[in-house]
Amino acid sequence: YSGRSLVLLFSARLPSSGASFVLSDARLHAVEPTTSPTPPHPTPDRPSGLDPPNVVLIILDAARADAFSLYGAERATTPNLEALAEKSYVFDRVTADCPYTLCSSPTILTGLSFLHHGVIARGLRISEEVTTLAERLADAGYYTLGVTSNPNNSQRIGLRQGFDDYYNTWKYGGPVFSRDPANLQALVVKGLDAAPSNQPVFLMAHYVPPHEPYAPPPEFDIFTDPDYDGVVSKKLKLQQRILQRRIQLDDRDLVQFRALYDGNLRMADAWVGTLLETLEDGGLLENSIVVVTSDHGEAFREHGRFSHNSTVFEEMMHVPLVLRLPKGWTSPTIDEDRLVALTDIVPTLLNLVGVPGAEDTDGSDLFGPDDPDRVVYMRSSQPKGGSWGARTRSHKAVVDPEHASLFNLDEDHLERRDGIAESPALFYALLARLEAAALSAGNADDDTDTMLPEEIETLKALGYL
Question: Which of 72, 193, 287, 360 registers the highest number of CB atoms within 10 A of its CB?
Answer without folding.
Answer: 287
